[in-house]
Amino acid sequence: MSQPVAEKISQLRSLVRLLVESSEVVIKEWEAEAAQASEPNNTPDVPSPALYEARRVIIGACGMCIDLVQDPLLRLGEVVSSYFAAKCLNIAVQARVADIVAEADPQRGISVEDIGRRTGINGRKLAQLLRCLSTIHIFSEIKDGYFVNTRTSEYMVANDSIQGGAVTEKLPAVLFDPVKTHSRSPRESAFQEAYGTNSTLWEYLEEPVEQPDGTMGPRPAFNTWIGGMMAAGRAESSATYVDYPWHTLGSRTVIDVGGGLGGMSLELAKRYPDLKFVVQDREAVIEKAELIWKQELPEALEAERVKFMRHDFFTQQPVKEADVFILRHILHDWPDDECVTILRHLRDAMRRDSRLLVADKVMQTTAGSPLLKSAPSPLPANYGYAHHMGNILAIGMLALFNGVERTPEEFSALAENAGLRVVKIWECRGLAYVTEMRRNDYDG
Ligand SMILES: C[S@@+](CC[C@H](N)C(=O)[O-])C[C@H]1O[C@@H](n2cnc3c(N)ncnc32)[C@H](O)[C@@H]1O
């Protein structure tokens, strides 16, 4: 069914209006940011609320404009083959093209033949890949066959963390399997299909293999993953450290359940010097956590503001009646039944006024939720393209764990099944949220 012309015209005009208004906000905020850059307490990685809002309106409006004006068949073709652009990026990262380009004079760039010689990839073929990326502003071809970095490709320099998810390639095999498609087990996801294992990812990483020195230890990917969790936390969570009122917690103790290397606690410890922490995780991970804290915040260890504890969150929580429990990037790794088990153990350990803070993304559908801020019309309620990345990452959770990034209503259902309730969703800037849960008998 094609959209009536009058409706298309009205939508396009509204979108252009949004673009013009929001662009003025961005310009004003950029100017203010530049003026504040030298001020102490400046947090450059977190945009101001006005800039954050204007940015997502612009991104959403650009995405909707493309959809509105482009031929639908071409657009479908572009989405279905976006995989090719992803592959070009994977190859460019693997070949360290951005690092090679960064060594060249930015006025002159570097020839694709030179990049080809350094990477071992045929120059003419490499040019096809780099042109595909340059067209979407990752690298720029400044004259025929000469490339420079852009503000986006500069982020690839000396950066190992940009990787695509090979596991998702097995997603169709699981989704079309008449039995596995209905599975709610964390052991029947695309990950097990791709790696021919029955282990969950976390078990798999810790399986003993021979190390270079002949001893047995975790798989090499173990270190990449736990470092990656810390990097992902840094990239996605900055706003949660300032948009939730941590300062009101004074000198309370925070139990970071499944805390990994304690990345969230570490950042909070730096900003809120009175807070105390207990970081819990599996044995192999928690051993590494202490080393990281020794390097990054030794004074917290000396002052005994942080303790490290081996703990399986599918068993009884050993720290009873703590003030605050946090779960960052944990529930999204597990299907509903496992999440309810994790939450029940926390509910059993909570005082009546303890709080549980879940720092997972909260998904908003295009139809919206009364618990989340909606985008201005005619954008879809979830700001469309601006929140596309959240949805992409959610597919990763499905592929790796049969996991889910949840809507507010899905979080409420989990909480209810565990004797808790969601009291507030703190919408932080970026893809970050803090969902505050309390015991269902808490009446504060
Ligand atoms: C995605 S990471 C998040 C880590 C950390 N919360 C953060 O935000 O950086 C998931 C963590 O859950 C831990 N984990 C997995 N199964 C666990 C279990 N049964 N008990 C405790 N921790 C577990 C993993 O070792 C990993 O550190």
Automatic annotation (TrEMBL):
GO molecular function: O-methyltransferase activity; protein dimerization activity
Annotated InterPro entries: COMT-like, COMT_C, COMT_dimerisation, SAM-dependent_MTases_sf, WH-like_DNA-bd_sf, WH_DNA-bd_sf
Name of this chain's protein: Uncharacterized protein
Residue span(s) of domain O-methyltransferase C-terminal: 252-420
Keyword Methyltransferase among record annotations: yes
Keywords: Methyltransferase, S-adenosyl-L-methionine, Transferase
Highest taxon of the lineage: Eukaryota
Organism: Postia placenta MAD-698-R-SB12
GO terms for biological process, alphabetical: methylation
Entry keyword Transferase: yes
Domain O-methyltransferase dimerisation: 80-158
